[in-house]
Amino acid sequence: MSKHTVEELLAAAAARLAPSSSSARLDAELLLAQAMRFSRPTLLARPAQPVDDAAAAGFEALVARRSAGEPIAYLVGHKAFWTLEIAVDPRVLVPRPETELLVELAIERIPAGEATRVLDLGTGSGAVAIAIASERPDADVVGVDASAGALTVARDNAASVEDVGVEFREGSWWGPVAGERFDVIVSNPPYLAADDPHLADPALACEPRAALVAGPGGLEAIAEIAAGALAHLAPGGWLIVEHGFEQGEAVRKLFADAGLREVETRRDLAGLERATLGRAAG
User: Fold this and answer.
1) Which DSSP category does 119 fall into?
2) Are residues 56 and 149 in the same domain?
3) Do 38 and 55 form a contact (C-beta atoms < 8 A)?
4) Are residues 236 and 118 part of one domain?
């Protein structure tokens, strides 16, 4: 049996993680709960409980990985998104809170109780598609991704949510939906340039590069999506795309040049331009 209690291990790990994490104590709690196979509330209710050797060793390994920059979501295997717990691993991006804006904007444009067709381009873990389907169960939701590994994660996530059905297809952007039209199309595509300094972040180094980097300029994926939008939108349908906070003006121009109307950019909770939307003629 380890000579250390829950609280002693938490305090030591939080101090170790503090230089590399702004949420060191929380990270330590989540990792020790994972190692001990407890919920976090159960763990916090037992600060004086001794930790056995196997759990202590597992915790040490997790702390070392977190200290090296691996995302906490990969270490615990899931991430909260919308009202869901989304399973994640290095085959998919970790869902970000700002991406919930895509869900909000989509469900505002999907009438409750109506059979609406929705497409999620670059679905990754399936977080956006599944969140939309959970809020609009009458919608026909399709998720597309070029990564077979990502789609395995997405299908497992969809299967874990009761009464939610999403059809996932493998392929690049518009390829898997040739000849089809949708009422709402959403996408959180790669939008970093190949030389973006954010890519030096150790956490980003753990995530799939193809889901982060669009090309030399950062707008290549969004340009392809915008160019093909009118061929895949139903009359009056909406395209909604997440992008970098400095890309709003460029994305609005891409949308307008592609023939979309009512183009505007919405800000996230941090006040940053985060998602641009446009509409096909009705």
Assistant:
1) E
2) no
3) no
4) yes
The length of the chain in residues reads: 282
Please state, in angstroms and as integers, the Cα–Cα distance from residue 146 to each residue in 84, 121, 130, 188, following that order: 24, 9, 18, 13
| Model confidence pLDDT, tens digit, residues 159-183 | 999 888 899 999 999 999 999 999 9
Residues 223-242: tens digit of each pLDDT: 999 999 999 999 999 999 99
Query: Is the pLDDT score of 50 beyond 90?
Result: yes
Q: Does pTM surpass 0.90?
A: yes
84-87 and 78-81 strand pairing: antiparallel
Label residue 167 left, alpha or beta by phi (over 0 means left) and psi (-120 to 50 means alpha): beta
Whether residues 31 and 144 share a domain: the answer is no
Helix/strand number for the chain, H first, E second: 11, 11
Q: Are residues 98 and 61 in the same domain?
A: no
Domain end point (choices 53, 68, 83): 68
